[in-house]
Amino acid sequence: MSQNNYSQVNRSNDPEQIDLLDLVLQLWRGKWMIATFVIVFIALAIGYLSVAKEKWTSSAIIAQPDAAQIATYSNALNILYGSAAPSMLDIQTRAIGRFNSSFSALSQALENQEDPEKLTIAPTTTGQPLPLTVSYTSTSAEAAQKQLAQYIQQVDEQTAKELALDLKDNIKEQIKTLNDSLVNQEKVAQEQKDLRIKQIAEALKNAEAAKITSPQLQQTQDVTQETLFLLGSEGLKSMIDNEASRPLIFSSAYYQTKRNLFDIQNLNVNPDTIHVYRYVMKPDLPVRRDSPKKAVILVLAVLLGAMVGSGVLLGRNALRNYKPKA
């Protein structure tokens, strides 16, 4: 028994053993010191909250434009390319795709500024290209909502102008193509006229050689190139004069090309009538700020203050009771 009592006393006097009850008593006796640290850390946290910049994020959800929002652009493409024009769905998809690209470029430019701005665009649902969620972070809820709406409008107007500019380039190219087609058709018609006159002139030579002056055929609809000279020299001379004075004869394709050219020349697409997105949800007014989080920071301040105060208290007591080993 005496040996066991001795070992228990010896263990209790061992400075390397941790006595939880003693720690609790030390913390209780130094509670005012710990409370002082907690108050100091709370004051620091309040000071940080008073000077820290607030961050509020406004978000909007957008999708491809309605048919009416892109109607003028679609109609222009239909006039330009006819049956080869892209479908309305293709045009809508391309429009929102260009909006996405331009918005991403703007986001990157804002991020690379000396004073960066946070503007993001991403699919609302993972794995689905549409709709898109766009967000902007600012120092106040109102500023975030207003600036996000302005950036969306800015990208919309920029993209509409780019589409209108592309359309003008396509119109110029199509006008050039149609004019070239008309010139070629006129050349063909002129060559056909010259060939017809040459054929009649050749028949006239044959008629003069055969000394045929008056028509030898009763039905002129049966005349072929080989029997043309039978119309007689007088009739053939009259035909040559008539053919020379007649205007060129064009096919229906020529006049269809003319109509297409006039329609395209009259095209005038105003960028203000083009919109490349549709709101599913307009920029919202955030009700909770992203940072700083008051409750979280105050709780952390209390915990850190208690931990630092406890550490200082226990460290001071340990140094006070420290006795070097013999």
TrEMBL record:
Transmembrane stretches, start-end: 32-51, 295-314
Pathway the protein contributes to: Bacterial outer membrane biogenesis; lipopolysaccharide biosynthesis
One protein family per Pfam: Wzz
Topology of the protein relative to the lipid bilayer: Multi-pass membrane protein
Sequence ranges assigned to domain Polysaccharide chain length determinant N-terminal in this UniProt record: 16-119
UniProt-annotated location(s): Cell inner membrane
Organism superkingdom: Bacteria
Database matches in InterPro entries: Bact_polysacc_biosynth/exp, LPS_length_determ_N
Keyword DNA repair listed: no
Keywords: Cell inner membrane, Cell membrane, Coiled coil, Lipopolysaccharide biosynthesis, Membrane, Transmembrane, Transmembrane helix
Entry's family note: Belongs to the WzzB/Cld/Rol family.
Protein name per its UniProtKB record: Chain length determinant protein
Organism of derivation: Enterobacter chinensis
Protein's gene: wzzB
